[in-house]
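#structure-requests
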Amino acid sequence: MDIVKLRELLEAELSSIELTELDDDFYKEFDSLIKALKLSAESSRERGESVEERLYLAQLKIAERLMREIIKIRLHKIVDLAVEGVPGELTSEEKKIFAVLRAFIEREELPEVGEEFGSEEFEVIQQEEEEYPRREAPRAAYIITTELPTILGPDLREYGPFKAWDMAVLPEEIGKVLVEREVAFKVKISP
């Protein structure tokens, strides 16, 4: 498991209405990746290698963001499957979610799915969200001069597809690349 595999999985989930088939150990492999990145960052810090530490921390942040997006998309699909009553290709963790959703939809008693979600876990989740607050990417308006396919932005959102002479509000990172490749130009919007 690595960031490339996570990115490929996110693209597969975004491009299909069906759930992408995952190994049953997918979530465990992700946890292992996170632990390895954290350990690498800590050992780099202990050795005084600040550049390597920042690289590992950046990889950690990217992996966590990719996984959050994957989970969001998969949860939407699991809810759809639960409403339809079709389990689909789910991992063992996702089957628990599916069972709870089905029980809720059918107005049945909720099944036992493991440990209760305690306040300690909730505090950890809140703490993680505070560490990584959602930032809105600076945006600007651009005129696209040629037809372009959908672009996955740094905020993991899709932009496009675009037809020639479309106007779009895009994150500046994407706009800068399009301007450099001479397929768009920035426009000023006056109030």
